[in-house]
Amino acid sequence: MKVGIVGGGQLARMLVLAGYPLGLEFRVLDPAADACAGQVARLIQSHYDDEVHLAELAAWADVVTFDFENVPAAAARILAQQSVVYPPEEALAIAQDRLLEKTLFWELGIPAPTFSTVDSLEELHDAALRVGLPAVLKTRRLGYDGKGQQVLHNAAELESAWEALGAVPLILEEFVPFEREVSVLAVRGRGGETAFYPLVDNQHRDGMLRLSQAPLTAPALEQEGFDYARRLLERLNYVGLLAIEFFVKDGHLVVNEMAPRVHNSGHWTLEGAETSQFENHLRAILGLPLGSTAAVGYSAMLNGIGDLPERAAVLATPGAHYHAYGKALRPGRKVGHVTLWATDPGSLPAGLERLQALTTG
Ligand code: AMP
Question: Are 260 and 332 in contact (CB under 8 A)?
């Protein structure tokens, strides 16, 4: 079975590595000659709007999938003309635009922050009155890892924020004073069967994920999260892995955003779940039976941002697993991760402290 992947970053790379034992073949399409998935699969070096190369990938593949959600709509359409494409185009289109995304959350009864669209400085002033301050100003499209967003604390900051971000459509959303952040990783197969990984606790700094820990034992929250995930999967007629990020406020979930792909907060599943998110995404899009999403032991995943701790020092830590993505080191870039795994959760904090001391960034 042949899988084409649009986008050749670390998510594509880990999909490929998970797919080899299943006997799958891969090609990845990415504009960068040094796309890191190109080290493990044949790379079609191409822009995402190059119809010839997209058609070549689609003609070769049994199924085409993505390692990022900002695939141009036209590219998804070209692929769909010649191949089976999952997740569905609509899920990509919605996840690309915070307005469409938030509108869908409200429609499905999934609590989301109050928001207002902003297309001018006057609208920003109106929105600040309606939403209240503090609030977060975000670009509607192409934001990730906290890029394209700014927290506004008082009216004096509105003009400079508008100048920094206002060249493109924006939304202003309520600042959520959250107790913690969690994510749900859900998967739906071609036949409509679903499975959910245990709830993940996530810690961000400067808008970027730093640490994920799973499973988070919080049964009521988990049920809320699974219920919301199920609504999204059904409404989108989704196939593949869907990640949904939430804030926890007053003991309940408030949704932040969704990603129609495998997700950084699911990297722990490589060691910490019976079937990894990467393998289950592949199983889902190929119409194969889904694997168990049950956690095996306890996991903590630390991102390597800009740099990776020294390999030998990580490997000297009992239970630590090292994942380098084969990417050039650059400040602010995700270049690898380390997962600490244990059968006894009580042993994680000491190992984590040691790893955190080794991890810069
Ligand atoms: P995003 O790119 O929207 O996922 O935002 C990245 C991170 O910024 C989130 O994981 C939060 O830590 C923080 N953040 C985003 N939106 C809000 C909000 N409305 N209220 C509080 N924190 C937020």
Answer: no
Distance 207 CA to ligand 1 centre (A): 6
Q: Which atom of ligand 1 is nearest to the CA of 145?
A: 2
| pLDDT for residue 56 is more than 80 | yes
> Could you tell me the pLDDT band of residue 146, with boundaries at 50, 70 and 90?
low
Among 256, 264, 305, say which to mutate for ligand 1: greatest number of ligand atoms within 8 Å of CB: 256
Strand, helix or coil for residue 116 = strand
All structural domains of the chain: 2-85 (3.40.50.20), 114-174 (3.30.1490.20), 180-358 (3.30.470.20)
Q: How far apart are CA 276 and CA 280, in angstroms?
A: 6
Distance 150 CA to ligand 1 centre (A): 10
Place of tokens 């924006």: 170
How remote is the CA of residue 316 from the centroid of ligand 1, in Å?
35
Q: Which of 4-18, 131-145, 212-226 has the lowest mean pLDDT?
A: 131-145
Distance CA 184, CA 256 (A): 12
> What does pTM read for this prediction?
0.96
